[in-house]
Design a protein that fits this description.
Layout: E1 17-21, H1 42-56, E2 60-65, E3 92-96, H2 105-112, E4 118-124, H3 126-140, E5 143-152, H4 161-172, E6 177-179, H5 181-189, H6 193-198
Helix pairs in contact: 1-5, 3-4
Length: 200
């Protein structure tokens, strides 16, 4: 996958907020309309990122869609978390019906209370929830770092999943910084210890 190289500022201006979006069974169940066929490398990268963020004890949240429809229905097993991405007791959960994470009013209010918010975004799907969240954040003046290889989406039209995802990642790069899992983990792990302690 081609990733547009970026340059980070020397330090985050505030504790980065990490968002794991729609890591639900609906996206990995075979023969479902929103199913993604190729699980690697995005699912293993997402897990590495989640483990790394938990180890650093940075603020993170899990987002999921719950709809009144046949897909993402709250009473369906398909709306549940993928096993490796179940939130722990001390992690925030935001639920919504629309693609953008900002459609959850509690999350929107939370971000509006942060001075110069920085959100690191990973999860599913790049062409819907991630793209809509990035565009809305851009218009709110919020900084987004999108972890492209910890995300994916189904194929669009005749395009494969990989080609579709590359195109969507390029579109996202117009509104956000696009990085790899290795790049963001290296940046997070190299944050000054005093900076980290303030947010633990």
């Amino acid at each position: 996958m081609n990733v547009i190289p970026i340059k980070f500022s020397s330090e985050f201006t505030s504790a980065p907020f990490i968002a794991f979006v729609d890591l639900q069974v609906e996206h990995i169940a075979k023969e479902r309309a929103y199913s993604i066929q190729n699980l690697d490398p995005w699912i293993s990268n997402c897990k590495r990122l989640l483990d790394g963020v938990r180890q650093l004890r940075l603020p993170l949240a899990h987002f999921r869609q719950l709809r009144s429809s046949a897909f993402f229905n709250k009473n369906s097993d398909f709306s549940q978390w993928i096993e490796d991405f179940r939130p722990t007791a001390n992690e925030a959960i935001y639920e919504r019906q629309l693609p953008s994470c900002y459609s959850n009013s509690s999350f929107s209010d939370y971000m509006n209370q942060i001075s110069q918010p920085v959100m690191i975004l990973a999860g599913l799907t790049a062409d819907q929830s991630c793209l809509s969240t990035v565009v809305e954040a851009y218009h709110r003046g919020h900084k987004i770092i999108y972890v492209s290889d910890a995300s994916s989406n189904p194929g669009v039209g005749s395009l494969s999943e990989e080609k579709s995802h590359n195109i969507v990642s390029h579109i996202i790069s117009l509104y956000a910084k696009v990085v790899t899992t290795d790049e963001i983990l290296m940046k997070l792990q190299s944050m000054d210890l005093m900076t980290l302690r303030r947010y633990q």
